[in-house]
Structures are given as C-alpha cells and as structure tokens.
Write a structure and sequence with these properties.
Elements lengths: L1 H23 L8 H26 L8 E4 L2 E5 L4 E7 L2 E7 L2 E2 L6 E3 L1 H6 L8 H11 L4 H12 L5 H12 L2 H5 L13 E13 L3 H7 L11 E13 L6 H10 L10 E9 L1 E3 L2 E3 L1 H16 L7 E5 L3 H10 L4 E4 L1 H12 L8 H15 L3 H12 L6 H16 L6 H7 L6 H15 L8 H15 L3 H17 L5
Parallel strand pairs: 7-12, 12-13
Antiparallel strand pairs: 1-2, 2-5, 3-4, 5-6, 7-8, 8-9, 10-11
Helix pairs in contact: 1-2, 4-5, 4-6, 6-18, 9-13, 10-11, 12-13, 12-15, 13-14, 14-15
C-alpha cells in the first residue's frame, strides 16, 4: 500500500506540474479565458481523483491480522482481497481491502478499512449524494443528472437518483424531531400554525394502465391526483389594525411597510400512505408535526396560538383535535373570493359597482358584522326572477360564511394583532409542491412523492447541511457503531 500511495502522490505532482507548465508556456494565450477555465477545471478533477486515491492508499488495506474480535465474536480474515466501487465527485475508483467473517461467500461482518474511511453504505460518496440531491429537489431527476454531468462529467442513471432520493429521505422524519427550538429572542409573540392541501399527479397502477390502453375514454382525466397536506409553523409580532387599514391595503394591492415578517418558518408536507402495513393519514401526520413544533416553541404556553386556514372541514376537525385552545381564523382571501362571486351575480366583472359591492361588505365583515352580510345576501336570494346559476352561487356563499362564522371574528383578530391571511400556506403549496411535483409530464408514486416532499421541505427550511450531517452520522453508526464515532 505504501507503493500505491507514493505512486499516487508522484502522479499528482506530475499532473500539477503539467498544469503549471501549460499556463506558464503561454500556450492558451490565443484562447478565451473561459476555455482555459474549463480545461483547468477538468484537470483539477483528475488531480483530485489522484490525490483521493493516494489518501485511501495511505489508510492501508484493512488487515488486522488473521482473526478479529468483533462484537464479542472471533471472525476470520477472508482469504482474498475484496473490492468495492466508490463514486466520488472526482470520478470512479475501486477500493481493495481485507474483510472479516465466518467464511467466504457468507456475510462480511467486519470491514476495518470501510470503518476507518467512513465509507457509505452504497457506491456514491456522501458529497456526491449531497450535491446531486440538492439538484433533484429543485429540478427533475433527468435534469439533475444532466446538470451533474455538465459540472463534473458524472452521469449516474435516473433510477439511481430516484433510489438515492428515497434512501436519503428515510432519515427525514427522525431528523425533524432533533433540531432545537429557535432562540426565544428571535421569536415573535404570536405562534401561527397554518395548513392547506395541494394535489400531486399520481402514476396509475400498471394493471389500470393496461386496462385503459393508450387512449383515454371520453371525459377521463389525463391523471389522477392525491392530496399532499402542507403546513407551516412560524412566529410573528402582533400587527394591530382597523378594518379600514385592511380595506385600504387590499385596494392598493400593496402590503403595509410596517407589517412584521414571519420568523423561523418551518414547512412540512404529508401524504396519506401505508407504513409498516398500516395506513397513515396525511392530515393527521401533518398536524402531529405542527403540534410538536408548537409545543417546543411554546413550552410555557405564554404565547397565543393562531390556526389560520381555509374552509376545509377536515382541516378544522384536525385543528380541534391537535390545537383545541388555538384561535381559529378563516383565511380572509377565501372570504373575499366568495364576496366577488356574489358581486358578479349582480354587477359586471371588474366594474366599479362590483368593487363597491365587495368593499362595503368586506368592511362590515372586518368590523365583526358577519351576520349582517349573511342576512343581506339571503334577502337578495329571495328575490324573484334570479337565474338558477345566481341562486346556486349566492347559496354557496351563504353556506360558506354560515359554516365558518365562528372563525370570522375579524374585529377581535385585528384588535389583537393576529394575522388573517394564509398567504404562507398557499405560497408553501405552490413553492413546495406545485413548482417541483407538477412539472410537465411528471407522475409520482406515493412513496416517491413523499420522499421528495420530505427533502424539499428540509431544503426550503434551510436546514439541508445540518440534515445531511445528521443522516451521515446515523448511517455511520448503523454501519460501524463506535468505530465511526
């Protein structure tokens, strides 16, 4: 191994001297600087591979003698060197080392060199997994592979990238229980939990695709979707306002300059799936995560908790189960959508009359006069001669307001400085789910979608580096125990 080490270092010295000589001779002076840059980077990758081989050779071949005591058992050194592939960011190399077990052909129970080097469980280096999965959480697997090939000249298969994504995501759930709560000095005085749902296009089962054939039937959708439930927990400072302030802000479509910013926002996304033979409900899993986060950040229970959502009945049921003491707030923008629907029953779209209709009733809702608005729309519904479509729209608006009335106490919310718009949840649905999961032609399995959502949420929470180190330590401990510590 000493000879291999010295050969590697001599080769690296030669490679470096060749690079210096190439620049010093002025051979590239006719080329553009970017062409020189590309040549140097390619040469540096080769130099890095040579040095990495030298480092590995420097660690020996794992020979600990003819026998090795391991976990209370005596193992035999197997009669021949075993080799394993290692794909680093510099390129591929093969590592030959002695391993220990009972006999050749059976399980290799102790791998001293693997433990000394901290080799991963599979062929891909931890750095390569880190870089490739950073690309995968932002773009398609195929595009990520193309980007990796452009940068490093490496081209693992799309299947390898997908399997890697799921393997890395296996540590996501345990990781989410490990980070400490944010420093209290950096937190706002109000804790907000918000949730929403977004459909993910799913891959149809093989037997269904065979039965359907290559063409869809009349009225049949191109794909089916399964709901991903997206949640966020953050803290925020109180922002006391009056109804007129909100109406003015909406009319100008511009946020107030003094509006506080959410602090330490954490995102999650959960899908209904089967784990260890049991069905796990996505909504329940999401609210369990949010409840744990809220408890960690409000251990003394001194902060008011606001649960801010749209009118989905299932979400409010989970709120009553997991946040029974929280202040429930119906997202104002969903309230506003219903008002515009009612306005267009009587006035032309985008007309001043429609805007006046909405502004007047929105102000009343913000002043706590929801009952007056419901009553006024109900009186209009009783008028004769209304089209069936108009009756349907007005009835839907009345039902929506009446059903969610207990979450529409906006006068009290504004006086307390609570947020009343769920832009964080809707933005998370778009950014976390739609921007990655609904790219052209994408179809997902439940397991694949959940793995991607776990990793993408970690990336968007800006905890990727910490997570990557966490999962390396978990894998190293599983592989090598105290040797890797």
């Amino acid at each position: 191994m000493i000879m291999a080490q010295e050969r590697a270092f001599i080769k690296a010295q030669s490679q470096l001297e060749t690079m210096i000589a190439w620049i010093r001779k002025g051979e590239p002076k006719e080329g553009r600087v970017d062409q020189v840059e590309r040549r140097l980077f390619a040469d540096l990758l080769q130099l890095g591979l040579t040095l990495l081989k030298g480092f590995i050779a420097q660690q020996g071949d794992g020979d600990e003698g003819e026998t090795l005591e391991h976990q209370g058992r005596i193992l035999q050194r197997l009669p021949k060197l075993h080799k394993r592939r290692y794909l680093s960011i510099f390129g591929e190399l093969w590592i030959r080392r002695w391993v220990y077990g009972q006999r050749e052909g059976q399980k290799m129970e102790a791998l001293p060199l693997d433990a000394r080097l901290g080799l991963p469980a599979n062929d891909f280096s931890y750095v390569l997994e880190d870089w490739l999965q950073r690309l995968c959480v932002k773009e398609s697997f195929a595009e990520a592979i193309t980007s990796l090939q452009t940068l490093l000249g490496l081209s693992p298969s799309v299947r390898s990238a997908e399997e890697m994504n799921r393997r890395v995501a296996e540590h996501a759930e345990s990781y989410r229980e490990s980070p400490p709560a944010p420093p209290p000095a950096e937190e706002g005085n109000i804790l907000v939990a918000t949730a929403d749902g977004k459909g993910v296009p799913m891959r149809r089962p093989l037997e269904e695709r065979v039965r359907r054939g290559p063409r869809r039937g009349k009225g049949e959708k191109a794909n089916k979707k399964q709901m991903a439930y997206v949640g966020a927990v953050y803290s925020i400072a109180p922002f006391v306002r009056a109804a007129d302030d909100v109406v003015d802000e909406l009319a100008r479509r511009q946020a107030a300059p003094e509006r506080p910013i959410p602090q330490h926002k954490l995102l999650w996304a959960e899908m209904t799936c089967v784990r260890e033979g049991e069905s796990c409900n996505g909504k329940a899993s999401l609210f369990e995560e949010m409840s744990r986060e809220v408890a960690a950040r409000n251990s003394r229970k001194t902060k008011p908790v606001v649960c801010l959502m749209d009118g989905e009945t299932g979400l409010w049921a989970k709120q009553r189960q997991w946040f029974p003491q929280a202040v429930g707030v119906l997202d104002l923008f969903h309230v506003l959508e219903r008002l515009w629907d009612a306005a267009y029953c009587f006035h032309a779209e985008k007309s001043p009359q429609a805007a006046e209709f909405v502004e007047h009733r929105l102000r009343m809702i913000l002043q706590g006069k929801v009952g007056y608005v419901i009553g006024e729309i109900r009186r209009r519904l009783r008028k004769r001669g209304l089209k069936p479509s108009v009756k349907k729209t007005l009835s839907a608006t009345i039902r929506y307001y009446d059903h969610n009335r207990k979450h529409m106490r906006y006068d009290a919310y504004l006086a307390a400085g609570y947020p009343i718009g769920s832009g964080v949840a809707e933005g998370a649905c778009r950014h976390l789910v739609k921007d990655r999961m609904e790219q052209t032609g994408m179809r997902w399995t439940v397991d694949g979608a959940q793995a991607m959502l776990h990793l993408r949420s970690i990336y968007l929470n800006k905890t990727w580096d910490h997570f990557h180190e966490y999962r390396i330590q978990k894998e190293q401990n599983a592989l090598y125990g105290q040797i890797a510590a």
